[in-house]
Amino acid sequence: MDFCPKCEILLKPVKRDGKTYLTCKRCGFSKLLNAQSARYSTTRIIEKSKHRTIGVVEEKEELKEKAREEVKEVSQERVRELMDLLNQEQEHAEAEE
Ligand SMILES: [Zn+2]
Fold first, then answer.
1. Rg (the chain; Cα; Å)
2. Which residues fall inside 5 Å of ion ligand 1, going by CB?
3. How many helices (H) and strands (E) does the chain have?
4. Which has more confidence, 80 or 4?
5. Which residues pair with 22 in a beta bridge?
């Protein structure tokens, strides 16, 4: 990011004739976009990918929540299975006596 040498305020990128100029909105000072300003757009891309990461994290949280629900369902099934198994063993033990 660049600042106006006169007003010391942030220069805004303005597109003109297919080129991007950094322009001071107070005094009208402008200069052609250079490598330093290219960094400005890189920062914006990073900001965008950050947002995407946040989106992914949110999706992961949703998946975690779903997985937790699935685990609950599975464990309930497991409990029922174990109960059946215990009942069967009991019946078996009774039959043996
Ligand atoms: Zn200025």
1. 33
2. 4, 6-7, 24, 26-27, 29
3. 1, 3
4. 4
5. 13, 31
Distance 16 CA to ligand 1 centre (A): 18
Q: Are residues 21 and 46 in contact, defined by beta-carbon separation less than 8 angstroms?
A: no
pLDDT at 85: 85
State the distance from the centre of ligand 1 to the C-alpha of 7, rounded, in angstroms: 4
In contact, 56 and 64? CB cutoff 8 Å: no
Domain limits, the chain: 1-33, 44-96
pLDDT reported for residue 50? 67
Q: How far is the CA of 34 from the centre of ligand 1 (A)?
A: 18
